[in-house]
Amino acid sequence: MCYGKSKMADRGTVEGFACRDELSRRGFLKRLSAAISAAAFSQFLTPLRLFAARDDDSSNDTSRRGERSDQALPNRRLGKTGERIPVFGLGGGGLFHLAHRREDAIALLHRALDLGVRYIDTAAQYGDGVSERTIGEVAKHRREEMYLATKTLERTYDEVLRAADRSLDRLRVDTIDLYQVHGLRTHDEVRTVLSPGGAVAAMERLRDEGVVRHIGVTGHYDPEVLRSTIVEHPFDCILLTLNPADPHYRPFQRGLLDTAVEKNLGIVAMKIVAKGRLLREDGVRTMREALGYALSFPVTTAIAAVSSVEELEENVEIARRFRPLSDEQLRELEERTAHYQREANFFKYEW
Fold it and tell me: Could you list the residue range(s) of the whole structural domain that residue 195 is in?
């Protein structure tokens, strides 16, 4: 691992969730805005109820290991990147940050790739590098099957160059597909990362050098912080929280999601089950409901960590069979979370 000089320096319609192909994105958004202004939505009904069906494509067999094409995961376009990504992605938490479960995690990742899961999410901080190292054990053999996304908590130019170097070593790759500013919380952090000596300038350099293909931003705490960040800088992607409890407190799906769509960002949904805290008998009861909720919005993919191959296979099957939920179904799920919204939004209060 290199801790000194960086290697890189050396080298539509609202109800139908569809829009016609002939409509431009700008025209569609204007029509959507007009429809929203004319409607009297309840406090639970979010303003962006659209599903980009024109981007869905379940005809591609994304598996390399014998899965039938009629069982392939649907794909969606990752915003301005032009990449097509399956609608379910694998989170690098769970097993992946546990050193004593390394072999289980490696087997799980191989199975995910066999099933056509392509978007693999991790971060330098997960298990203090354990997640990246574990994923690297598979990436060295199956790199071409992965869209590999990682993140850094570093905020300055030099720190990011060093952090990227370490991530490349742990992941055993020459290129990171998506490198992200991790966990922005405050406007002061935004000013730092967007300054000439900040994290984003370093990421732009890495992208120019071909070490990073795309750059993005993530956050769990305050949607307005993220919205201001993507307004001020032309990122490629955003990773944001999205589950049925979201409308009850600091909703990410209102101004932030609207802005991300308008800017044609690749949008990745996380915290779809809030580390399991969303799922309960008197609320959102199943992963099918939670994943269906997230995928009924204009996101490219929804990521989740899993604890077993069986859980992975169940989630993939749910994603394969996904159909967008109606406004009534979405509203019902939101209403079911009202009495425990703080638990299901814990990251907005605690992180």
Answer: 58-350
